[in-house]
Design brief:
The complex is a heterodimer. Chain A is mainly alpha-helical. Chain A contains 14 helices and no strands. Chain A has a single domain, classed as Orthogonal Bundle (ABC transporter involved in vitamin B12 uptake, BtuC), CATH 1.10.3470.10. Helix content of chain A is about 75%, strand content about 0%. Chain B is α/β, with parallel strands linked by helices. The chains are: A mainly alpha, B alpha/beta.
Chain lengths: ~350, ~260
């Protein structure tokens, strides 16, 4: 048996090289994110020079009050919310794709976004609160409650016997249609004013960003990320197929349920704050997969970073395309993101999904 | 000495009984054991039951090893993950660990198993690019990288060409000899079984109909019972036993075949 020879091991070195390259990619994404956030903060209806903006960030007390308010209380929350929301939706999409073994799984395709839109519309059109809340918070809380109801439905279904991942994905798609139809019905009966509000909300927007929303989304990321990180090897193994993973000792069913709970939180909260920005949940993970592969030690931070970079860059574009106006970010994500995404998939031509 | 025995093992899917009262004598480590039987005889279910992936009656007795030393390799399925072969073997090694770091020793054991099963040249290839046979070899490396003492492999050679079948079975036999492990392989080629496996377990319709020394188990009568095939077992010119197939059995209701 000539080919089974005891050559000196040599691939450990090659592998270490691969790891080093991947770390560089992660650092690169991090740098890109910083640049994008800096540009994002420097752009807006009021024209400030970039050095002045940076000065405001580093030493806020040296600039005048108006500039301080614009940069710190309006632009910074928006820019950082783009980062936390992008990272959350992308991470949610990444883990949905992982546990459901489906490249199309995302908060958008599983009905969470549609449910959130419906919940928000309930508040805006009928003034119905799904959960007793202050009027000012009714829209986001309704959106969150509806998204959680949708994910609980999916969660409940996946605990049932004999339910496969394909069934879960199909149920998700059924939810999308159901909530979209319910939303259309609400819109049909809505007043003109309420209709405008609903349409604007479903387009997705970062303009209502506050530090409070930034803190909440960041806190959820801070809770979920370490929980995923601890399960990195098991989550990666699940991508080899359920039987293989189970044979390696991965508690497949439990891991899937735990992940669904975390993913629901990760997706529902951002969606309730910024509306429908569906695309990030699919594209972010795919970009990370193409750049870094699916070892979760790199894929997990990679998906978060690429989602954050994409949404932050989109935020820049939404301000830069029409001077003086901020276009709804959900529209830009899809319009600019799709061609880029297609190019990436078609040129890379990997067989993995 | 590592040993494995089954005692009245049963397994069912819902109300349908797949395995019933599976009992074997002690199966000794250090050589290969074959599990033979027709399609749907319950081979995969028996493996999954022994591996603890499904519950049921009876017990699996282990001596010189515990359930943690057991690895089960399921039948070959596609792998779509964006991972290299090398990464996929690391993954198998690190299951159960929560830390992210890899020691030089761990990487060395990955290198070792890839060399041992003749797939070192595939180390940097992506899983979805592999052929069926290459994938099967990678699965074997994934299964053995932790150096388990009890190994159950479901048709490990079904996608391999003739040369690779010999190569892999020889590597598996050497693994059993070196580690003293109990290595049970579900196999269809009875001549491969006679050549490589010291012990054979025969399964028909969820029941173990024979277990013991391969040449004593694989008689023309048993082969007819298992597969509905008439055959002879003869010594070839080199002296090793060969099964010669004469054709489908004339007796219409051969057990275990549908």
């Amino acid at each position: 048996m000539a080919s089974i020879a005891n050559d000196a091991p040599q691939h450990a070195g090659t592998y270490r090289g691969l790891v080093a390259r991947r770390l560089m990619v992660l650092v690169g994404l991090g740098v890109l994110l910083l640049l994008s956030v800096a540009v994002d903060v420097s752009l807006g209806p009021a024209r400030y020079a970039l050095p002045d903006v940076l000065k405001t960030l580093v030493a806020p007390n040296t600039v005048d009050l108006q500039m301080r308010v614009v940069v710190w209380d309006i632009r910074m929350p928006m820019a950082i919310l783009a980062v936390t929301v992008g990272a959350s939706l992308s991470l949610a999409g990444a883990q949905m794709q992982t546990i459901l073994a489906n490249p199309l799984a995302s908060p958008f395709t599983l009905g969470l976004s549609a449910a959130a839109s419906f919940g928000a519309a309930l508040a805006m059109v009928l003034g119905v609160a799904l959960f007793p809340a202050a009027v000012g918070l009714m829209v986001p809380i309704n959106a969150f409650a509806a998204a959680m109801i949708a994910s609980l439905l999916i969660f409940g279904l996946s605990t049932m016997r004999g339910v496969t991942v394909e069934t879960i994905v199909l149920l998700g798609i059924a939810l999308v249609f159901t909530f979209n139809a319910a939303l259309a019905l609400l819109q049909y009966f809505a007043s003109e004013q309420a209709l405008a509000a609903v349409v604007f909300w479903t387009m997705g927007s970062l303009t209502k960003a506050t530090w409070g929303k930034v803190a909440i989304t960041a806190a959820i990321l801070a809770i979920c990320t370490p929980l995923f990180a601890r399960r990195a090897w098991a989550l990666t193994a699940i991508r080899l197929g359920e039987t293989r993973a189970a044979a390696m000792g991965v508690p497949v069913k439990r891991l899937r349920l735990e992940t669904l709970v975390l993913v629901s939180l990760l997706a529902a909260v951002p969606v309730s704050f910024v509306g429908t920005i569906g695309f990030i949940g699919i594209v972010g993970p795919h970009v990370a997969r193409l750049l870094l592969g699916e070892d979760q030690r790199f894929f997990l931070p990679g998906a978060m970073l690429s989602g954050a970079v994409i949404l932050s860059a989109t935020s820049v574009l939404s301000k830069a395309l029409l001077p003086g106006a901020v276009l709804p970010i959900g529209i830009i994500t899809a319009l600019v993101g799709v061609p880029f995404f297609m190019a990436l998939i078609l040129t890379k031509g990997r067989k993995a999904w | 000495m590592v040993r494995l025995a089954l005692e009245g093992l049963g397994a069912r899917y819902g109300k349908r009984s797949i395995i019933s009262d599976a009992t074997t004598p002690w199966i000794e480590g250090g050589s290969l054991t074959a599990l033979v039987g027709a399609n749907a005889a319950g081979k995969s279910t028996l493996f999954r039951r022994i591996a603890g992936q499904m519950g049921g009656s009876g017990s699996v007795r282990l001596s010189g090893a515990d359930q943690n030393d057991l690895r089960y390799m399921p039948q070959d399925t596609a792998m779509t993950a964006a991972l290299t072969v090398y990464e996929s073997v690391i993954l198998a090694l690190k299951q159960g660990a929560s830390g992210w770091r890899l020691s030089a020793q761990e990487l060395a054991s990955v290198d070792h198993v890839l060399h041992r099963f003749g797939i070192a040249h595939l180390a940097t290839r992506q899983l979805p690019e592999l052929s069926g046979g290459q994938r099967q070899s990678v699965s074997i490396a994934q299964t053995l990288v932790t150096r388990p003492k009890i190994v159950l492999m479901d048709e490990p050679t079904s996608a391999l060409d003739l040369y690779r079948q010999f190569e892999i079975l020889e590597a598996l036999r050497r693994y059993a000899v070196d580690t003293g492990a109990v290595v049970v392989l579900a196999l269809h080629d009875l001549n491969q079984v006679m050549r490589s496996c010291a012990t054979t377990i025969a399964l028909a319709q969820g029941r173990i109909v024979a277990a013991g020394d391969t040449l004593e188990v694989l008689t023309p009568d048993l082969i007819r019972q298992l597969y509905g095939i008439d055959s002879r077992v003869e010594r070839c010119s080199r002296g090793s036993p060969m099964m010669i197939v004469d054709g489908p059995s004339s007796s219409a209701h051969a057990a275990g075949h549908c």
